[in-house]
Amino acid sequence: MFRVTLLAALAAAVAARSLPIGNSLATRSALPTSFKWTSTQVLVGPKNDGRRIDGVKDPSIIQIDDTYHVFASTASDAQGYNLLYFNFTDFAKAGEAPFFYLDQAPLGTGYRAAPEVFYFEPQKLWYLVYQDGNAAYSTNADISNPAGWTAPQHFYSGTPALIQEGLEGGYWVDMWVVCDAKNCHLFSSDDNGRLYRSQTPIENFPKGMSEPVIALKEASKYDLFEASTIYSIGNGTYLTLVECIGANGRYFRSWTSPDIAGPYTPLAATEANPFLGLNNVDFPSGPRWSKSISHGELIRTNVDQNLYVEPCNFRFLYQGVDPTVESSGGSYNALPWKLALVTQTNSQCSNGTLR
Ligand SMILES: *[C@@H]1O[C@H](CO)[C@@H](O)[C@H](O)[C@H]1NC(C)=O
Ligand SMILES: CC(=O)N[C@H]1CO[C@H](CO)[C@@H](O)[C@@H]1O
Ligand SMILES: CC(=O)N[C@H]1CO[C@H](CO)[C@@H](O)[C@@H]1O
Fold it and tell me: May I ask which residue range the UniProt record assigns to the signal sequence (predicted)?
């Protein structure tokens, strides 16, 4: 009897809990309005391998079975930017993973930066989206074959007029593709307070990107700077993150929206209450090695073009830098950016399910 009653009570509780699920309010409410994280110490930095790069930046990370696949920028004050790839199964050993410099692939030498990787299911192809002066992409049938990335192709014929107008001394950076069931959307930033969005029907992707529109805008460029990422968090809700520059370094603001195209509602969107920043990241295993929590990505285990992440127990691979070097006024491109992992500690989910 007791067992049956208990089971019935459990079933009732489960039913009650699943009632609100299915609308975007429920999904949004799975997210806290303030986030808390812990960070590791440095995991990955430049190798002493003859390439003499200054920083490892802008990671994009996916997990397939036990393997993490990371694409990142190589930054060098003398040689400019290119891309690298590495993989590992254990974060504690991420620093030992050999780098495959993607200039060895047909993707080639020259300016390439800020990659995003995803699997475009309709074409059964991996895409790497990045900036090369334009919004560029390469494709590859096999994620495990880094020599297979094709030469860059472009989403636009040149810098779109709206973005050219908006730049005013900024830079056109950080291209990001995310698709819903009908369209693929291409976001980019101008380091000048604007986030742009174009779209194309999924069956036309990667061709046919529309003229961009302004998706988000701030009067101060520092409040909407760069490194935007947009993820599906289920049931028609999207989470947008944008890197900003505050009084105490770089941090991320967040918004949710019922559609990739908006409207975007602030979630944790201030330097005092950031999605990720100085104020909400602890370093339990050592010193606060970086004040800035800069360009990076949530770890995705769903690798396709929908960029679905469960709104639970987020993990985010970021770039950070020694605060004394960051504030010393040297060239941005020479900064010794390195990668570390933050893990959300105040998730409102357990065992990956909404509650
Ligand atoms: C890991 O990277 C190496 C290149 O450094 C590549 O040859 C190998 O296939 C990758 N492993 C997996 C599991 O993708
Ligand atoms: C991710 C998420 O919240 N998915 C839920 C969407 O809504 C259906 C029911 O309407 C649930 O079964 C899913 O778990
Ligand atoms: C995989 C996982 O996170 N399992 C956890 C599910 O919740 C129970 C009880 O809270 C934990 O003990 C498990 O470790």
Answer: 1-16
